[in-house]
Inverse folding.
């Protein structure tokens, strides 16, 4: 039927949301925290290519039982995506990410050369 | 808060005026709910910067509420039921391990929030099931017996 053309799979055309982020620096690392409520942990993707860090994800589909009728809905199924340009040297092998309470934390350890070094002054 | 109309995609093309009705419903909802969101004395209308986005679904026996509240710990969320209102409160504490100077960006919300959600019927405060997973709070609230829809049998003689 011609109308079938319009019945797209809703997950195929997710609205992309830019997650809010906190970025802070410590002596030995730079950390990013991104709000991604409802994200499917399995679909999270953190990728560093050149100096571009890309974070992607999507929310899990709510499985609301059939007997329920929506009264109002502000939440929706979304894709998350955000890119960051890094301007410091990162120890690429040591990047860690975890996802707790809907917040993705990415820890980027600084490369040895980018870490602060105390220089002794000789008299 | 963004206004995101609910859309039933399956019937979208079969209801030419569906979108208009939805906009009307959204506008009604805006006027009905936005002023009621912050209980007086807790927050001024402009005082609270953030409130969780919520979905409310209703069945014959239950009301299901989902709320996005990323970054909170379980014990930082307070759930109250008062009359026909559900109140979600909480405080997200700022982590103090890093000095402000060392922040490049701080977009994520921190501080306290409060949201009042009017419920369509009376609920049994004893029968509330709350789950918190991946930053989403899911509440199943049982309706009180007396506010469930009843079928009245009429004997036709």
């Amino acid at each position: 039927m011609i109308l079938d053309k319009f019945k797209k799979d809703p997950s195929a055309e997710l609205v992309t949301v830019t997650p809010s982020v906190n970025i802070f620096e410590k002596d030995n690392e730079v950390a990013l925290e991104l709000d991604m409520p409802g994200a499917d942990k399995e679909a999270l993707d953190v990728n560093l290519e050149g100096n571009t860090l890309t974070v992607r994800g999507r929310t899990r589909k709510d499985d609301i039982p059939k007997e329920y009728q929506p009264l109002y809905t502000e939440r929706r199924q979304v894709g998350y995506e955000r890119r960051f340009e890094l301007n410091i040297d990162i120890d690429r092998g040591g990047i860690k990410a975890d996802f707790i309470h809907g917040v993705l934390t990415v820890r980027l350890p600084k490369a040895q050369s980018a870490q602060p070094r105390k220089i002794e002054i000789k008299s | 808060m963004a206004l995101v109309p609910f859309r039933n995609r399956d019937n979208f093309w079969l209801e030419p005026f569906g979108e208009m009705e939805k906009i009307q419903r959204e506008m009604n909802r805006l006027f009905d709910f936005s002023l009621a969101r912050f209980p007086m004395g807790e927050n001024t209308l402009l005082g609270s910067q953030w409130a969780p986005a919520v979905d409310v679904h209703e069945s014959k026996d239950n009301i299901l509420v989902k709320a996005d509240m990323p970054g909170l710990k379980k014990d930082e969320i307070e759930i109250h039921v008062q009359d026909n209102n559900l109140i979600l409160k909480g405080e997200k504490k700022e982590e103090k391990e890093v000095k402000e100077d060392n922040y490049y960006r701080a977009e994520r919300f921190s501080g306290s929030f409060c949201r009042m959600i009017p419920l369509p019927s009376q609920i049994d405060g004893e029968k509330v099931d709350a789950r918190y997973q991946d930053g989403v709070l899911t509440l199943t609230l049982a309706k009180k017996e007396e506010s469930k829809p009843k079928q009245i049998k009429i004997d036709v003689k």
Summary: Chain A touches chain B at residues 3, 6-8, 10, 20-26, 33, 35-39, 41, 60, 62, 64-65, 67-76, 99, 101-103 (CB under 8 Å). The mean pLDDT of chain A is 88.
